[in-house]
Amino acid sequence: MALLGRPKKESKVRKYWNAYHHNMGRILIILAIANIFYGIKLGKEGSGWNIGYGIVLAVLFTMAITFETQLCSRDD
Question: Which of 11, 48, 66, 74 is an S-S bond match for 7, by CB 3.0 to 4.6 Å?
Answer without folding.
Answer: 11
